[in-house]
Specification:
Blueprint lengths: L7 H14 L5 H16 L4 H18 L8 H13 L5 H18 L31 H9 L4 H13 L3 H5 L6 E4 L2 E8 L2 E7 L3 H10 L25 H15 L7 H12 L5 H8 L7 H9 L1 H10 L15 E2 L6 E2 L15 H35 L1
Antiparallel strand pairs: 1-2, 2-3, 4-5
Length: about 400
């Protein structure tokens, strides 16, 4: 049975209730939306897709403000104009509204081999102008900041693993103890995604994962979910999408990061960064894209890697710094222990790992030595001299 990490069954139930009880939707439209919902299930569409259709059709009904069956081409032109003129909607949202409109009217008019005249003219192709720019993604410095403001082992592991692994949200939230194995280099995750099972290597985030598993309340159970909620009202229940979203949102606020952070952004950011370092085939394997998928080539194209490298080569230059990982393991020089990228002290021997922390400690130590200890030593020496003279 597939895990419902997004609580979609509950969301679907609530969506249907809202439609039935809505005073803003014409009764004829309510009935048609509910019938369309049944048709979508019969076609084998996912619950998530159906919930999205239901919400969109509610909004379309309000915008149209007349029975669906009585709407003509002129009504569709006015409706699509409203959609296109909405400056608060992204290109993706506008496209989804138009796709939903065409699918719904194809079902309503029973034109399954095409689209009816009133919607056949609507264009649903996407422009390539809405790709995320580098400033929209999370930098490795921001990932480190998020890890540094965490207050428990689970949250630190979530931040570092969601970024380093580049896994889909569903692949990680459904991960069980039996799907993790540690070795000399880090850990292997055996994830199950929409393109099948695959093996994912993590290195920098392995110490954080190990720390969380040491604190996991059911760590001896191979069937236990790795990620659990720590919220009081559902403590130790499997973490769902909403809970994960709230964790990242709260951490972003603490870290002072103003970007709109959501769980998928970690995968998107990782793919963007690695597009400068891995080839398309390697990207497909790591991120679980099929051979036919164009996602890898899109990320490589957006990174500008090929053009940059060619131009640098013309000038006899190379961009070696871009090949280096910024979120690296911190190896303790004293005991060789592997520590998380954000660690300030070795978890085994407590040696300072962070240069800034080391400088601050040395400064404090100098002040202590120059003040308290020296003063105490002088007082003791003075007392000893006075005692001898008596």
């Amino acid at each position: 049975m597939k895990e419902d990490i997004y609580s979609r069954a509950k969301t679907l139930k609530n969506s249907l209730e809202r439609i039935r009880n809505s005073k803003d939707i014409i009764d004829e439209n309510k009935l048609l939306i509910l019938k369309f919902h049944s048709q979508c299930f019969a076609e084998g569409l996912s619950t998530a897709r159906i919930v999205k259709y239901l919400y969109t059709l509610q909004q379309i009904s309000k915008m149209l403000n007349k029975p669906f069956e009585k709407a003509n081409r002129e009504d569709m032109v006015k409706l699509v104009e409203k959609i296109e003129r909405n400056d608060n909607w992204s290109d993706w949202t506008k496209q989804h509204y138009k796709v939903t409109l065409k699918k719904f009217y194809s079902w309503l008019r029973k034109t399954y081999d095409g689209y009816p005249e009133e919607v056949s003219w609507i264009k649903t192709s996407m422009k390539n102008s809405n790709s995320k720019l580098p400033e929209d993604i999370l930098s490795e410095e921001e990932i480190k900041k998020l890890a540094e403001v965490t207050t428990n082992p689970r949250d630190k592991a979530l931040v570092l693993i969601f970024y380093e692994s580049g896994c889909r949200v569903g692949e990680l939230l459904t991960l069980k103890m039996k799907q993790i194995s540690f070795d000399d280099y880090g850990a292997i995750l055996l994830v199950r995604g929409k393109t099948g099972d695959r093996r994912v290597r993590i290195i920098a985030s392995a110490p954080a994962l190990s720390s969380w598993l040491e604190n996991h309340p059911d760590r001896e159970n191979p069937e236990a979910y790795v990620w659990l909620s720590l919220a009081t009202n559902c403590k130790y229940e499997p973490l769902n999408y909403r809970g994960l979203y709230d964790v990242f949102k709260d951490l972003a606020k603490k870290a002072g990061i103003k970007k709109h952070i959501h769980p998928h952004l970690f995968r998107h950011s990782r793919a963007t960064h690695l597009a400068n370092k891995l080839n398309e085939q390697q990207l497909k394997v790591l991120f679980g894209w099929t051979q036919a998928s164009k996602m890898a080539s899109i990320y490589v194209h957006l990174s500008g890697r090929d053009v940059d490298n060619a131009l640098l080569a013309l000038h006899g230059l190379s961009n070696k710094k871009e090949q280096e990982e910024k979120l690296k393991l911190k190896i303790c020089p004293r005991c060789d222990e592997k520590n998380s990228p954000d660690a300030k002290y070795c978890k085994r021997c407590a040696l300072t790992l962070d240069v800034e922390t080391m400088e601050w400690e040395n400064k404090m130590l100098d002040e202590v030595i120059s003040k308290a200890n020296v003063e105490r030593y002088l007082r003791k020496a003075l007392r000893e001299v006075l005692v001898k003279k008596r």
